[in-house]
Amino acid sequence: MPTAIITGITGQDGSYLAELLLSKGYKVVGVARRASTQNYERINHLLDNITVIQGDLHDQGSLLALMEEHKPDEVYNLAAQSFVPTSWNQPALTGDVTAIGVTRILEAIRYVNPKIRFYQASSSEMFGKVLETPQTERTPFYPRSPYGVAKVYGHYITVNYRESFNMFAVSGILFNHESPRRGIEFVTRKISDGAARIKLGLAAELRLGNLDSQRDWGFAGDYVQAMWQMLQQDQPDNFVIGTGETHSVQEFCEIAFGHVNLDYKDHVKVDEKFYRPAEVDLLIADASKAGRFLGWEPTVSFAQLVRMMVDSDMKRHEKLILAEKHA
């Protein structure tokens, strides 16, 4: 039975990846930051089948101990300070976790067993102010936030360990991927939750930033499949993962509100406090290399994704309303 370690297992991608690996017969060890209240909401249904240990990308010693104790075949680094606006408020912390944290994991692998296969979660935010459209594995990076800058470091340190120490280290350059498990602070989840709350009479309006901002949005469940496939190849390489379609925040609003028979124009208010200091222009993936080498392609369309998220938030709020009635 192969063993996989997932850092950031309590996040959206970590929970989907854990499900996938369990279905393939892996022993799954998840690493979560110690906190006074543990947020295991996304992995509650998996806790009987996985091992969750406390660890931190700040702490080299705990990462060495982790590799020595669990002897993984694969390590997936999904841990990061991953919210772009927060990276402006906490730029040094973002650099320490999202950039230097990758080095600490690679060092632990190199020291304990350089044969361990390593996946680094890179990001389309590395392209930032894009220099060509669509973006491929060869497109130059021009990050526009401390988060994007930190991810560029994580990407290149992974490539450097691969080339310098002959390690199986890959970098997946994933474009935006969403799901009902997306954090509530992200714009997509903010919209699906807002539409549900307004439909159920729990709110009257939703305040958003730039409605013209465009992204290449896919389903997280599809993207973790690509992560796993990258580590099953004969040779380590970098892959762009995305849908190759771009949609605006406004389109997301139209479908989300339309799904519950509302017009977003009646409820969505643009608020400049949600604008980014430096906006990312147009992120759109060319994932043809992943199609050729991994046989990967997305299975969930943009409209399906939006409706799935709204349905999930509707159900959640309806449950809460019922629980309050019976309290």
Descriptive report:
The protein is an alpha/beta fold. It has 2 domains: 3-177 and 217-241, NAD(P)-binding Rossmann-like Domain (Rossmann fold, 3-Layer(aba) Sandwich); 184-215 and 246-281 and 302-326, Alpha-Beta Complex (UDP-galactose 4-epimerase, domain 1). The chain is 42% helix and 15% strand. The strands form 4 sheets. It has a 7-stranded parallel sheet with strand order 3-2-1-4-5-6-11, with helices on both faces. It has a two-stranded parallel ribbon with strand order 7-10. The chain has a two-stranded parallel ribbon with strand order 8-13. Strand 1, helix 1 and strand 2 form a beta-alpha-beta unit. The mean pLDDT is 93.
